[in-house]
TrEMBL record:
The chain crosses the membrane at residues 12-30, 36-57. Keywords: Membrane, Transmembrane, Transmembrane helix. The lineage of its organism: Archaea, Methanobacteriati, Methanobacteriota, Stenosarchaea group, Halobacteria. This is Uncharacterized protein. It holds the Pfam family DUF7554. InterPro entries: DUF7554 (IPR055976).
């Protein structure tokens, strides 16, 4: 009986698993970066509103 299931070496499987883990970590970092940017949007909008009000009042 010829069993051909184990044609991949252990090192190759480890490289595949480590590559998938690296991709997962990169995706987590990107999602964290977008979360930080999304938390800053209200602050940016507030600064823009203050600048518009100051510009309308000729303070800047």
């Amino acid at each position: 009986m010829n069993d051909t299931r184990a044609e991949l070496e252990v090192e190759t499987l480890l490289k595949i698993v480590l590559g998938l883990i690296a991709v997962l970590l990169v995706l987590e970092i990107i999602s964290m970066a977008f979360a930080i940017v999304s938390m800053l949007i209200p602050v940016i909008l507030l600064v823009m509103a203050v600048l518009i009000v100051l510009w309308l009042l000729d303070r800047i």
